[in-house]
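Subject — a protein and its fold

Tokens — whole-number codes for backbone shape
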Amino acid sequence: MSTANGRGAGVAAPAPAAALAPAAALADLDISRAWLVDPASGREGPGEIVVTDGIIEAVTWLEGADSEGIDAGGVIVAPGFLDLHVHFREPGDEDAETVATGLAAAAHGGFTTVCVMPNTTPALDEPSVLARIHDAATASGSPVVLLALGAVSMGRTGEQLALLGELADAGVVGFSDDGAPVRSAALLRNALVYAGMLGLPIVDHPEDATLTEGSEANEGLVATVLGLRGWPGSAEATAVGRDIAILADVVRDAPAVRLHLTHLSTAASLALVRQAKRVGLPVTCDVTPHHLALTDAWVAGVRRWSWESIVSDGAAGDPWRDGSIVAPPFDPSLRVNPPLRAAEDAMACLAALVDGTADAIATDHAPHAAVDKAVEFGLAASGISGIETALGIVLAAVDAGRLTLSTAIAALTTGPARVLGARAARGSWPRGLVEGAPADLVVFDRSQRWTVNADALASKGKNSPLLGRSLPGRVILTVAGGRIAYEAPEA
């Protein structure tokens, strides 16, 4: 295959990926006159990469006359992305997603390593469940590496610690009860200490369930006008404050503890993390693409990005007065936990990436069967199928000047790798563009757009509010551990 972007860049690659199943082929690539982004070295610019038998043979940074005509608006080569937070539903809910379809979706989105959450059926609370998931990944033939978080509590009920030591020996990279919080403060404290002894993080879904029971949408104007039960931002901030307070108490006696807060969505929550980092607490956090770019106004029928909603003084306008409602309200694909927030909160999520408060972008890929979404808004299962649209959303923010390209790529590569720590090395984690290393790359073209539709998504979950929308940045090629994971069909 040969692909050109109109700026002189080219990618030479082997046969289409569909012909490579069940065992992905080793990559032989000659990527010329592209824009390279390497967060590991902090370098980006014009360059070329040669991959032979899956190994990066040469990385050449172009300068002077050789670099003329190459810019960051065309073909981009970056380390493969790492997603800290995905739900592949197997075992237990294979109608919504399987490990095989989830890995295919990841490769289509440019991800070469993913970390699955433990809210399967049964929960990933003991090693045999992890073995089933790893067996499914092997059987898929995908070279995308699957990592996993074990449950904090048995059955994720919040009552008794899971077999943390046995799960660690089996290879989990941390512990979480997502999609629910660790409800007991005492259990969280014990889990932090035990996980710290094992050198692994606790990943918490911060939510005070006493404040969210029966809630349907973000508390505010949109929920009030639509007659939806409000979901207060304080439910998240209260839980974040609790978690940080426990961490501060524990770290004095157990300095190896690590806490990661996932899918933060409010300015108040991020401010708490920012302050905790300033005083040196070992806390990290991530934000999702949909909380960066979508707002609760989408539930009313708005279809503009969060930064397009800001009219003055950092505030958003009234969608019923400014004519921005263009779609029917109550699209159940927009029901998500935590809910889509106000534009001001989305701006805070973007600012947190810029100043380093947020360490990573994680998709919270949550596919659902159509039957679980094709109901009234308040009854719909929570979640967005988002691993294939993440890059496009993030690049839209880059195009709008809200993020730099280097910040965005770092949040998808080196940022999540630092959160996981040493155990990320069990996967094809982003080592950077290093000669002699197995190629772990994504190649995408910023000059090309693609339209999100059900047939274009490899995931079984078609529950995306972006169906029918054109996104920037078509993924051309994903190489995981030296093997072709995804190759775009000829345009």
Remarks:
- The chain has two domains: 2-77+436-487, 80-426.
